[in-house]
Amino acid sequence: MSTEEKKRISFFEKYLTLWVALCIVIGTLIGRFLPAVPEFLSTLEYARVSIPVAILIWLMIYPMMLKIDFTSIVKATKKPKGLTVTTVTNWLIKPFTMYLIAFFFLKILFRPLISDNLATEYIAGAVLLGAAPCTAMVFVWSYLSDGDSAYTVVQVAVNDLIILIAFTPIVAFLLGISNIQVPYDTLLLSVLLFVVVPLAGGYLSRRLIIAHRGLDYFENVFLKKFDNTTIGGLLLTLIILFSFQGEIILNNPLHIVLIAVPLVVQTFLIFGIAYGWAKLWKLPHSIAAPGAMIGASNFFELSVAVAVSLFGLQSGAALATVVGVLVEVPVMLALVRIAVSTRSAFPAQA
Hints:
This protein has helices at 3-8, 11-14, 16-33, 36-42, 51-66, 71-76, 80-109, 116-130, 138-144, 149-175, 184-213, 215-222, 229-251, 253-280, 285-296, 300-311, 316-341, and strands at residues 45-46, 49-50. With 350 residues, the chain is an all-alpha fold.
């Protein structure tokens, strides 16, 4: 590793796995022993989207948007291979492998440990996760794996458009439910808060600051003010998320583990499919890594909201989507490590 690369790894990034584990524990304990905290935070919602979480995710994404030269977004649309890998993996493969993997583990392998009705509900939650690829957090994974920020924006935007059309029929087909009510206010607000607002903010900030202070000031002074903002936002987000779910996690330890197994297997499988496909197509690492991680991670805000509206807050489906939140960050950090360590296997540029 060069001296320049070493300098880019901050203290927080170097020990990120440890900080994530501590924040999960802190959040869970707050939810269990200080329930007034999540109760208050739950009042700060609009269209089932937590406003405090939305602000923190915005803080995570905004520094990455600042670094985008927006002319590169137009250029990214002229490179269809990366978009093909992402969309085909996310929409023609991922939902169906999620159903099959969840069915195998929860209905067959773990049959002695889970009742049939509860297993069905857990599968429903897994399918909701599988049919909703990530939108917001993928910017964090892209940043940590040195992904192409501009291309990641394009990949996320394409997936957002497809979710609007494909989410309902795919879930209806896999679960046999014809009266699914997708909370489109949740979906549209999430896209607005997690993609449109930080993208517009980054564009305007970059343009105004460079115009008034110059490119050198922007790159060497202004950007450095946000060095730890992304990581700090991630850690605070985890504390809030797990404070909401502390009671559920502590009351269902065995089932948490049983649900987590197929979700983890699915995550590694989807990442492997997309990442391997990108390797075969000789895509650059900066496109391959975030492209694979969009499908590997999930749009948990949408999944949790739909599970609660369809099956109820205390349902097995809702619990399964919560477990998706629980396992996602540690597993995605492992995938980031894999992506970074295999960078040399990909061409540097397209």
